Amino acid sequence: MTQPALRWMVFGLAASLVSVLTASSNAQEKKDPPKVTQAKANPSAERASGVIIKAEPIAAGGLRLTINTAAVWRDWARDQAVVDPNVSPRKAAERGANSIATKGEPQTKDDLVVVKLSPETKLDTRFRMMNDETTKGASTPAAAVKDAAGPKDESRGSRTHAAKPPQFKTSDLKPGLFIEADFRRAGGDNLVKTVTVIRPVSESASTTDKPAGK
């Protein structure tokens, strides 16, 4: 076989191989289209923590809250005139609204979070020491003091904060209260599943067993 004929034979085989590989690749692409991965949002991952600056009733017995997340717990709790967990919800809101941390913090669109509550929204009341910025708080003032004292001094907390403090209701949510709202995004709104009102506790506060003030 002459050299020109051999070269043409090799060229033809190479062209045929390329054609076969291309056809196989195209068939594979049609059979297995590229997968598109969509990130799934976690509806329980959203949380807004801060001071209520606006509370507006909405339709169907709901409530719209505007929360200033720039208000830091430690500063807000320190500004309370009297750290008394037995104070009434109304007075608690009034004291919180007059605190420096509430009035002095910036209120920019990056710091404000608007959430919506429905009649199904769960409301909880927790108690947290003034210097505690990490925990969810305790179910009672005594438990908050005891948790801060540690296991070596279990008697602390049982001698103080004996009164049963008021539990907040949705109607008690007023500007000035420090809350944590767990919500999910739906239709452009932040729909709240749980709202926790967090009250400051101090070991030196007077908390004798007496009815909460009005």
Notes on the protein architecture:
The model is unreliable at 29-44, 153-162 and 205-214 (pLDDT under 50). The chain has 214 residues and is an alpha+beta fold. A hairpin with a 3-residue loop joins strand 1 (46-58) and strand 2. The protein has helices at 3-31, 73-78, 89-97, 100-104, 141-149, and strands spanning 46-58, 62-68, 112-117, 122-129, 178-186, 189-201. The protein has a 6-stranded mixed sheet with strand order 3-2-1-5-6-4. The chain folds into 2 domains: 1-35; 46-201, OB fold (Dihydrolipoamide Acetyltransferase, E2P) (Beta Barrel). It is globular. The chain is 27% helix and 26% strand. The chain contains 5 helices and 6 strands, in the order αββαααββαββ. It starts with a helix and ends in a 13-residue tail after the last strand.
